[in-house]
Design a protein that fits this description.
The protein is of the alpha+beta class and 345 residues long. The chain has 7 helices and 20 strands. 24% of the residues lie in helices and 33% in strands.
């Protein structure tokens, strides 16, 4: 039974009692289609502002294709009216849940994601309040939907890490938060390596092709002291500053502004490097080989979520054959980037 006032799910709609679940097609719906992580993503919304956020995240990126037919994923974005309660300085943390073939990420009753991976569909709902937090809206709701659907729909192994390369070959960079992966990726970019991703890398375990979203680079202010090029310093210094959930503030520099080369195609991995924040014993020898029998344990310890996903066992086997190194810090981040260049051959 539904009372005369409706259920209130479709806030701001005059006939909410007649359409409590907002199932009636809305007028002036627009769509944007982008090739992301080897899949074709179609975003639909009546809100131009939400589609602008999609474009801010995914426009101007290289179109990566994997050795499989690219399925279409559909994500609807819905904007709800501003909440009555005061808007907190920071949105609530996303809580995740699953059941009945659905995956959910919920901030609150007006800001959440519902995904149906088997149907390759998703719904992102955000209130007007969240427009004041574009980083959280993009990263924790929209990107959550894109990454999760691509992982499940394309059989990718999702890794928290970075990846750079050259001539179609890539090195996977793993390590704890704060170990310097983003700074290393930046200096690799400045030395002419192809930039694939600095925060999330997705690997097709059979081909060992890695893909990612090279839209933004996140670096802390102290990374600027290692950059001598004035144009690069200005590019980063003028970028917006975002605040991570940990409280760490970072510049969010747009990689599509021409400072370096983005990987035009997925990179075939030739190895993994575990980035360590400890200084090297010999500043001229930053890389050390990790014994093969230790690689699997190192990968699982570094990637708790990915190690439980389908495809992990094959990925792990292949990575053990490719080999792994540990990279310690030298006098300057460019020394580490030079070591990666040599490793790529």
């Amino acid at each position: 039974m539904i009372d005369d006032d409706g259920l209130g799910f479709c806030a701001g709609v005059q006939d909410a009692g007649a359409d409590p679940f907002c199932e009636r097609p809305a007028d002036r719906r627009h769509s944007v289609c982008r090739q992301i992580l080897g899949g074709c993503f179609r975003f639909e919304s009546t809100s131009a502002v939400l589609l602008d956020l999609v474009e801010a995240a995914y426009a101007g990126l290289p179109s990566h294709h994997l050795p499989m037919a690219a399925p279409e994923f559909r994500i609807e974005l819905r904007l709800l009216p501003r909440q009555v309660s005061p808007n907190p300085a920071e949105p609530p943390m996303v809580r995740v849940q699953s059941g009945a073939g659905l995956l959910c990420g919920v901030m609150d009753a007006s800001n959440y994601v519902v995904l149906a991976p088997e149907q390759r569909r998703g719904l992102v709902v955000a209130s007007e309040d969240m427009l004041g937090h574009p980083y959280h809206l993009r990263y924790e709701l929209i990107e959550f939907a894109v990454f999760t659907l691509a992982t499940r729909g394309l059989g990718l192994v999702p890794l928290h890490g970075a990846c750079v390369g050259a001539q179609g070959r890539g090195i996977l960079l793993l390590g704890a938060s704060g170990s310097g992966k983003s700074t290393l990726a930046l200096h690799s970019l400045l030395q002419g390596l192809d930039f694939l991703a600095e925060d999330a890398v997705f690997v097709q375990p059979e081909s060992m092709l890695a893909t990612g979203v090279a839209n933004y680079l996140h670096v802390q202010a102290d990374a600027l002291r290692f950059i001598s090029d004035e144009a690069t310093r200005r590019w980063i210094n003028q970028a917006p500053v975002i605040r991570r959930r940990s409280g760490v503030e970072k510049f969010e520099a747009d990689l599509r502004q021409g400072h370096g080369r983005l990987a035009a195609v997925p990179l075939e991995l030739v190895g993994v490097v575990f980035v360590c924040d400890q200084p090297a014993d010999d500043p001229d020898v930053l890389l050390s080989v990790i014994p093969q029998h230790e690689i699997a344990d190192g990968l699982r310890a570094d990637q708790a979520y990915a190690s439980g996903q389908p495809g992990w066992h094959r990925f792990e086997q292949q990575m053990m054959q490719l080999g792994a190194h540990q990279l310690r810090r030298g006098h300057h981040p460019r020394d580490a980037a030079t070591a990666l260049s040599r490793l790529l051959g």
